[in-house]
Amino acid sequence: MKIEYIHASKFGNGAMVAEEFARQMATKEATVEVHHIRDVDPAHLPPADLYLFSSPGRFGKPIKNVRRFLEGVQLPSGSRYAVLTTEMAPKPDKETGRMPTEEEICTYQKVRPIMHDLLQGKGLVQVAEGKVYVTGIKGPLEDGWREKVAAFAATVSDLEGATPQASPQV
User: Fold this and answer.
1) Which of 7, 45, 46, 116 is the most buried (most CB within 10 A)?
2) % of the chain with per-residue pLDDT over 70
3) Which three-class secondary structure string do you get for 79-136?
């Protein structure tokens, strides 16, 4: 399986996730080419079996450079893609100490839905998505992030040769 992994990383967290994903996939005999969005032309992406896009979240959205990049992506309709983001870890309510539910988080954290809308609007087919939390604006990544990336890599590895239908979430 050949994977083109395109990410944006301002503080290095996304780059660390990309490197770990590539390392994990190498053990599964997959080829992963990692690129920062500033180093590739969205209109001329290399051929691949899967395109993996990654963005940090900022104010609950993918950063502007990623949104612009995804708007410019030109791939054949039906191309398979996955999304693996780095998002701010939820914090407990200051008054009650209660952690927000996944449903509540989805009301303000829209990084992945925005990315999916942009890519699916171009006829691309989502096959997987995942997220890794960042505990502060500049990091570090959450405890256990490598295991999350390994689980995501296993999901992607299982897709080889499969017809896209469901969208596994890690």
Assistant:
1) 7
2) 94
3) CEEEEEEEEECCCCCCCCCCCCCHHHHHHHCCHHHHHHHHHHCCCCEEEEEEEEEECC
pTM of the model: 0.89
End-to-end, the C-alpha distance of the chain in Å comes to: 20
d(CA 168, CA 154): 11
Fold of 2-158: Rossmann fold (3.40.50)
Bridge partner list, 31? 2
- The phi and psi torsions of 64 (rounded to 5 degrees) equal -55, -40
Q: How many CB atoms lie within 10 A of CB 119?
A: 22
Residue 129's Cβ-count burial label (10 Å; 0-12, 13-18, 19+) is buried
Contacts of 156 (CB under 8 A, 6+ apart): 1, 3, 25, 30, 50, 52, 82, 127, 128
Contact assessment for residue 108 and residue 57, using Cβ atoms and an 8 Å cutoff? no
